[in-house]
Amino acid sequence: MQHELILILDFGSQYTQLIARRVREQGVYCEIAPFTVSTENILEKNPKGVILSGGPNSVYESDAPRIEPEFYEKINAPVLGICYGMQLLAKDLNGNVQPSAKREYGHAKLNIINDKAKLFQHLPKEFDVWMSHGDHVVSAPQGFEIVGLSDGAITAIENAERQIFGLQFHPEVAHTPLGKEIIKNFVFNICGCRGDWTSTSFIKEEIEKIRRTVGETGNVICGLSGGVDSTVAAVLVHEAIGNRQTCIFVNNGLLRADEFETTLELYKQNLHLNVRGVDASKDFYAVLKNVTEPETKRKNIGRKFIEVFEAEATRIGDVKYLVQGTLYPDVIESVSLRGASVTIKSHHNVGGLPEKMNLKLIEPLRELFKDEVRLIGRDLGIPNEILQRHPFPGPGMAVRILGVITEEKVKLLQSVNKIFDEEMKAFDVYDKVWQAFPVLLPIDTVGVMGDFRTYEKVVALRAITSTDGMTADWARLPFDFLQKVSSRITAEVRGVNRVVYDITSKPPGTIEWE
Ligand code: XMP
Predict the structure, then answer these.
(1) CA 211 to centroid of ligand 1, rounded, Å
(2) Is 181 a catalytic residue?
(3) Structure confidence at residue 342 as a pLDDT band (50, 70, 90)
(4) CB 3.0–4.6 Å: which of 90, 134, 174, 379 could bond 95 by disulfide?
């Protein structure tokens, strides 16, 4: 089935993905394409509307990102330019854009000066918006009407006849509280979408698609990590082809306490997956022996994963496909300033295996954002315990034990992690942070316990807030909570006499310590 599509052209704004999520929240499918996409390609996609994103450039820079001039002539759907997108279309259509005396950043008041302005139907005449821009439109192009001002400056323009709209502010961010209504007006009233992108329709269509792709013969394997993405992907494929999919859940000896046993049980009993639990901890410890360098740890673990998978796949026989829980943010050809190279690595992406074994990929979640995956997981009956789980890196505790890894250190960190998790749940903190974990430092410090001097390990606690793991801030956790965790760790875990809290954001730090 062909869904209604809103196409977002990305000019490098940090908010581009947020625009996409706001559109999807309305039950309308949308895709992000780089600004370099040709008009011909855009027309082939037959979008119901096009949104030009913001971006860090100035339209007057010689190398500023542009669209083909014919875009404006040939596009047969409404267009909305946001921030840079508005400046670009204003300039391209012979309006006048000038640099502002200073960069405007933060809250502003928008005054609607035309009751008929289509983007602002059913909205008050004045409301708060969020600005972040250096240039501004000083005269609207011919045929355009100024429909919104902020402090006297042009902030919203519209050409009702050509269905082209421009907003200087960002409707997609939470700081523009009525932004959601503006997006709604655009996708429903202006573009005429009905909203045919729902969790139920997605599940139904995806199951059909997987059945068609896999065909009548051959097997499929899936690497489960215990996290949200691989679990949702596996359950979808199971709905489609049942036990012809074998899931492989590997114990690399670097999981959290009891995680292998409890997750395996959940996969088998609650989700009825055809799953093989492979305990390969000894093999993983062997390839980590005396290794201290973080990248070498990752590489050795990755290689071992592939070996374990290969051995299992050979045992199953006639394997044609590998299921992966790749998400939309990993496949967007974004021009965002982060660049393509810093995509988060995930262990369910069993890198190297597909080429080596000549496997084709099934990636049922590659059009989805994480919050959509959670909704679909919920509709597929996956327990909250998995859906709300914090992300956990493929190399597991290997990148949270600095220096040489031993089984003893893993056990110690598992005990600390258990306490941290228990208290986060007790203090109702777990769901408020994006990720939280302890790190075992490779140093001993002096302490005193009873009448005795101790010389033992230091544990660092890391808890962060984030929306995608690309940037993060350290979580302002309550002191009472930190106090409780610290005293429980030093009292209950032998070998730790000091607990510190990491107050580094990302950047400049990374979330993991290695
Ligand atoms: P960093 O440390 O790069 O982490 O700020 C960003 C997010 O990615 C996770 N992470 C990994 N996940 N394999 C994974 O599957 C890895 O090698 C890996 N390294 C980091 C990290 O936990 C955080 O969520």
Answers:
(1) 32
(2) no
(3) very low
(4) 90
